[in-house]
User: Fold this.
Amino acid sequence: MKQPWPIISLNSVSSTNNYASQLLSENKIVEETVITAYKQEHGRGQQDNIWESGTGKNLTFSLVLFTNFIEAKNQFVLSQAISLAIIDFLRLYKINAKIKWPNDIYVNENKIAGILIENSVMDNTLLHSVIGIGLNVNQGHFAKNISNAISMKTLLSKEFVLQEVLDNLLNCIKNWVDYLKANNYSDLKKEYLDNLYRFGEKNMFSSKAVDFSGTITDVEETGELVILAGDGRKLKFMFKEVQFI
Ligand code: BTN
Assistant:
């Protein structure tokens, strides 16, 4: 299968996102590139969390894109598109996943993939983006402190060839990146909401230690989550300001 981007395969690295950022800062990346690691010593998750992944078991990689086709104020489109690409990819394997706002990928109540996007901005547009993805593929057991992780192997009771999985995933991502490059986001929000975990369902949330019931009704262009609270108020939250309970 044709690979959409050149790939740098590393045996061991601290974090593929850090490695990519370092290369960018030294002007050593001249074209859009994927960096994969067999092992990450210090894989990073969102909010300074650690991303743990068994050596050689899963996909841990970063895609470097030159994203000057995205206005800084629209940067959430990248999160939406990459999330949808992973949903499309999992559908190839008949895995029905959802996007847990803003960009965690869940199968029922278990996380199968995480995304860490780090953008550099110049003037009003993005300059480049490091899109880090961790996808649980062949890992059967996770550390006790990672209670809700799940892998393709656990879901489908078989092992996968990582290179084939990567090729398929990169092709799904390429489709969505091309969609963004066409600069018309008309269907993006609808697609995102159609695949959003607990969209339109009554649910309990917590914000600033206050629990409340509400229904997710929308996401703003900024990425804010819109919840219609049980008492009729329309509330908007930025990342980490609200939790599902
Ligand atoms: C999250 O859900 O918290 C985001 C996890 C992102 C993990 C990936 S693995 C490849 C890339 N390199 C990193 O250090 N992190 C991302």
User: Anything to note?
Assistant: The two ends are 42 Å apart (CA to CA). The CA atoms of residues 204 and 213 lie 4 Å apart. The mean pLDDT is 96. The longest strand covers residues 110-122.
